[in-house]
Automatic annotation (TrEMBL):
Residues 138-162 form the Ice-binding protein C-terminal domain. The keyword Signal applies. Residues 1-21 form the signal peptide. InterPro entries: Ice-binding_C. This is PEP-CTERM sorting domain-containing protein. Keywords: Signal. The keyword Metal-binding does not apply. It comes from the Bacteria. Pfam families: PEP-CTERM.
Length: 164
């Protein structure tokens, strides 16, 4: 009977990767579009162990700034500590507190496809985290267009005057 218990434990540890939680790779998430803003929510859950999660986002737009966060709130049965987080290779700010773990970033220049990689460790029962990413591009003010049109008008006037 003892041999069966040992064999069962070995099979279970192999099947569940020992103390390694499942890594998660998201399909590409297309950010929802606004006038000059795009946004998406992300997150996942883990059982006990270390993990590496990769989220890929895409948006159709020019160079813009990304802002976002991810958070895990600790409860009696589960918790997550973040080890590292990067957005397109740029290290993000982390906080692992007594009640929550947090990732924050703001005004990171981005363009096209974004890759967010989060590593950490899950404790207890199923632990999860969730977050939001927002991408905002600069939209010229109406006065900018007015100045552009005025400048083109002056250039046209000068070109016409030179011909005459």
């Amino acid at each position: 009977m003892k041999l069966q218990s040992i064999a069962l434990a070995a099979i279970l540890s192999t099947a569940f990767g020992g103390a390694m939680a499942e890594n998660y790779t998201s399909p590409t998430i297309v950010l929802a579009a606004g006038d000059a803003n795009w946004t998406a929510d992300f997150g996942t859950s883990h059982t006990i162990g270390d993990f590496t999660d990769t989220f890929t986002f895409s948006y159709s737009g020019m160079t813009a700034d990304a802002t976002g966060f991810a958070r895990n709130v600790q409860n009696k049965k589960s918790n997550i500590d973040f080890y590292s987080a990067t957005l397109n290779g740029v290290e993000l700010d982390l906080t692992n507190g007594a009640k929550y773990s947090d990732i924050d970033f703001s005004d990171l220049p981005v363009n096209g496809t974004l890759t967010l990689v989060i590593t950490g460790k899950a404790f207890g029962d199923v632990a999860s985290y969730a977050g939001t990413i927002d991408v905002t591009s600069a939209v010229p003010e109406p006065t900018t267009y007015g100045m552009l049109l005025g400048g083109l008008g002056v250039m046209g006037f000068l070109a016409r005057r030179r011909k005459a």
